[in-house]
């Protein structure tokens, strides 16, 4: 698919394609052409030109999402290209903007917004090397520290110290880049580049470090908070977090697995849960909540009823919800506003079929993403599922891997899915008849790949043919056996893997020590 380019954009490409000429000629370029030249340079991966454009940026703001998004001159959105060459040139150009004392342009830049960059699985850049959210966090923190060292050592123009640029970024902090980010945040007041954290994700971090760094990010600006893998946050820590820090703009909250476990609740824990619910009620902007892999049986109402704003996204996958929880969700004011819903890991057909379909009917007019993985949906329930999904005309994504459905049932379901006009992404299970007879669901990791791969390929071809014959080539259908793509996990999987091996080794050593003592 080719996107039309205006004559202006074609001229801009021609200008930046000769890097040496473009860099020499920047001094004579009109201010309003800088955004056009930036997008053309980004498309052609002209790192040196990108660097010089940013170093001499003549405007008040620099917004990556807007600069790379669809424009009249070139409709294609490049904000999902996290090209390492382009992004590194951009950030080093920003550092040199502060240091460059001979730029012909007045230094007007006040705000740099890096939050519009989108991390996706398939990259189209020629260098094939990406810089994800963790890498951007690392590089910006490093450049801020280097800048401070340079300013302290060198004889700088007094005007350099008056430069103050707010850099809006989605920070991603793990054990490996913690010290670097910490130093950048601690010295923020002295640095001309001020890190302004809009979204914060922490993986693989001790609680002590998490609590220390989250306070330094200026929580009053935070819109999104993700506390994910290997941050051992439990309910009492969450209560401390809400009691000690105020998040007036928080719109999205993701909590790690096992934050809640109602099976070992005491009366004190019940009171703590009530307090947390009340504190969440004070988050007046909150519209997205993810609490997967916690045990919340019978407590959803206590947590969600104090919320003043209806949720648009709710992930309660593998939370052991009971009928009362599902009934609350179906009848709550959230139901009519849910655009994304994940109920994976619940035996929907057996536990609460009618309540689930009531919930689905309430959110059908706005629902864009539905995830029902490992929900024990069988062939006999497919017609009912089709009936429930029929009103969901805005559905863009449907994920239902891990359900015991036959090839025939999948074909029947796909014939229906073709009729959903907005659908773009389907994640379907390996058909039950591709596995050995007697396989039990949910399938354990060891058996997950033990299916007839040739038969699966044939069925997948037939399902794609159903889409093609209905003129729905726009729908991507796949079977990600080990879960959907996660850019953040992909970028830091070596660190996470090393952490898991270390944890396993420590557990093994403790076990061996205990065993030796017993002997």
Automatic annotation (TrEMBL):
InterPro entries with a match to the protein in the record: LRR_dom_sf, LRRC14/PRAME
Keywords: Leucine-rich repeat, Repeat
Any GO CC annotation of this UniProt entry: cytoplasm
Record-stated family: Belongs to the PRAME family. LRRC14 subfamily.
Protein name: Leucine-rich repeat-containing protein 14B
Provenance organism: Certhia brachydactyla
Organism taxonomic ancestry: Eukaryota, Metazoa, Chordata, Craniata, Vertebrata
